[in-house]
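Worked Example 4.2. Read the sequence first, then its C-alpha cells.
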Amino acid sequence: MHRLTFMLSIFLICTSATAAQVKLAVAANFTAPMREIAARFAEATGHQALVSYGSTGKLYAQIRNGAPFHVFLAADRERPRLVYESGLGGEPKTYAIGRLVLWSHDAELIEGSEALGAGEFARIAIANPKTAPYGSGALQILETLGVKDQLKRKLVKGDNIAQTYQFVMTENAQLGFVALSQVTGSSDGSSWVPPQSMYDPLHQDMVLLTQGSTNPAALAFVDFLLGDEAQQIARRYGYGTD
C-alpha cells in the first residue's frame, strides 16, 4: 500500500514537472471549437492552454506591442504573414477555413438572401471590417448582392464577431452576419448561408510566435491543433480544413 502511494506521488511530481502553459491569442470566431480543443489538449498532454479571444486586428496589434503570447490563431492569412515577415514568429499554417451565415433571432425574418433586399429590419450587424476579416467578408456579400449602399445606414459594427453575435442575440440588431460556428447545432431563429462564391475564402492561419518557440506546451499545441482530433472538432462547428 505504501509502495503504491509512493509510486503515485512520483507520477504526480513528474507530471507537474513536465506540464507547462501555453498562452494563445485566438480570433473570436473560433471561440466555441477552441473551448473543446483546449480541454482535449489538456487531457491529452497535461499542458494548460490560457486563451485570450479578440478580433484579429486587435490581437495582432497586441503582439506587435510585445504581448506575451506563444501562439496566434488569426481569422485571416494577412496578419500571420506580417508576423512572420517581421520576425516575430515562424511560418504560418492554415488551421481552419471559416464560413459566414446571415442569422436572426426571429424565426421568420430570414428565408434567403431576399431578406436583405426587403429591408424589413432597423439594423444589421457585421464585425468591424477594419479589424475583423469576417466583417470584410460580410461587406463582400452585400456588394455581390448589390445592397451595400442601400443598407449603409442600417449597419452596426461589432468590435469582433463575438460582439456582433451578441448584437443579434440580444436583438439590438434584427439580423447580422456571424460565424457559422456560432450557430451550428442551434435551432433558434432563422438563417441563410451565403454561397462561398460570394466572398473570399476565410483561410484562418496560425503562427508559432518567437517567444513560444522554446515552450514545450506551445510546440505541443501546434501539433495538436493540426492533428486529426482538433480538426474533427473544427469541422463539427462548420469549418473547412485543408
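Now turn to a second chain, presented in exactly the same format:
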Amino acid sequence: MNTTRNTQYGYTLVELMVTVGIIGVLVAIAVPMYNNYTETATVGTARANANQLAMFEDNYFYENATFLAGTYDPGGDVTTLPNGLDWEPAGDNDLFKYVVAAGACGDISQCYKITVTYKPDTSLTAVVEK
C-alpha cells in the first residue's frame, strides 16, 4: 500500500507580506519613541551639568565677589572654566558646549547665564540663569 502525500513546506507570499507589514507598523511606532527617549536623556544630561556648573559659579562668586565668564568647548576652549572654577563636565562625552555669560542684569548688580548646547543638534539646549 503506497500512499503519496502532496504536502508543501514553506510560507505563501501573502503570509510573508503580512509579516513584513506587521514589522513595519512596529518600527513606525518604535523609532519615534526611541528618538524622543534619546532627546530627553540628552537634555537631562545638559541640565544636570548646567546645574552643577551653576553651583561652581556661586562658589566662585562667594570667594571672589564676581562671576567668572567663559566657555568650555571641546572643539576649542577647554581651559577657562575648568581652570577658573575647578570644574569639568561629567558624562557628556565632549558633545556639549558650555557658555557662561556674566554681568549686570537689570536691577541685579551681578548675575550669570549658563547655556549648554548639544553640538550635533544645536536646537537641544539647557539654560540656567541667576
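Notes for the reader: The radius of gyration is 27 Å. The longest strand covers residues 108-118.
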